[in-house]
Amino acid sequence: MIKKDKKEKTIERPPIVVVLGHVDHGKTTLLDTIRETNVVEGESGGITQHIGAYQIEHDGKAITFIDTPGHEAFSQMRSRGAKAADIAVIIIAAEEGIKPQTKEVISYIKENNIPVIVALNKIDKAEANPQKVIGELASEGLLVEERGGDVPSVNVSAKQGTGIDELLEMISLVAEMEELKADLSNPGSGVVVESYLDSNKGPTATFLLFDGELSVGNWVACGKTYGKIRSLEDFKGDKMKNAIAGMPAVIVGLNEVPVVGEKFKVVEGEEGAKSISKEAKEKEGEVKEFGARDSDKVFNIILKADVRGCLEAIEESFKGMDLAEVKLRVLKSEIGDISEADIKMAYPANALIVGFRVKTSKDMLNLAKRRGVVIKTYNVIYELFEDIKREAAKLLDPEVIRKRTGQLKVLAIFRKEKARMIIGGKVTTGKIENKAKVDVLRGGEKITSGRIVQLQHNKQDIPEVEKGREAGMLFEGDPVIEEGDVLDFYHEEKRKREL
Q: Is the pTM of this model over 0.85?
């Protein structure tokens, strides 16, 4: 570990803010509006893809925002975003009110004791009802200031850009009350908010610093990954020599793509970094299993994604999938395009290769075809989960549907053998069919089962006998049938199961 300088260099650091809310309540529009009007020196459209965080300037002070996906499948990423933040902004559509994801993020905020600001969005709509939303918030344990509570609320229209300055002023005020400080003499430390494999640069990550300073040339340890910082960029893609607490920084130089939400720290030298990485690797298992863990029905997959956040969000969703008695086994989960190594691993394991927003080259498709390996790639997460369910369902035992056809009352026993009986009777309901299965009922209770291997009427073999007619038959099964018993005839149909 790098030793701390004797002289402290304490600064007031920018607040780190996460905007959370239900899908379609305007989070993306709000963030885009803030970026468009408040990002200094550069167009918001030039922000590096997959950055995960960016800074704006308001009244001469910086504010750092974490960008988190709104889709419910990314709950784990939203959770990590909330945990990495100093302040949370809950955005709620004023005409819709609280929704399932709103309740979800409220629970995250409460669990992590994060100061919260409510942004009531779409206030320009005629059907907007902010007082109704404020009442719903009270039911969830968030009492806004105008109702005597301590939660600030701001009316905004992300689409029209109204209320944005008031929201930023409120964020600055809450940050001032929190007295956010950092010591630049400390080794840099913080969390990973995004990561991916760049085809040219290699493993790339967005570090969000909470304390200290990070410079080109520093050795860092980050879970089971480590490396020496080769380059630093700000959220606009501009090169930097160093980053300080409160800033997001895109770094290159790690030996692997790090886990989103993993803590990082600057360490002294390569050996120190390697030691921490080795310890983390020893604790981590490579194969992950979900669903019915003790089942002999195993569905093997190899999972590839474009960024670490998506990879982990997919795995998190696997935990909640109902796969009946199927065990989902992830042999490998990795960032990057589908490779020869993936195909070679999938072939002996009979595994499906699942790719999310990744590419498969023509050479890899040809190799997979020769090996009989199936590759499926997706850009829409719903489709990925639906396909996983369909493929898993193929391993389920089919559902057996019993269809009753008729009943016969036994009137005579003609012959009894070791495992056969020749009997006669009258059809009382429906019809009875040759080769059908039967349950033998006595007093309404089942005593045995068997099947009919020959069916006759007037000593002639026939395929079926209808209600009201008599029949003779050769019963195959336990020879315990007596006069007065009832034979319940049925067929069984097998039906594929769905998940």
A: no
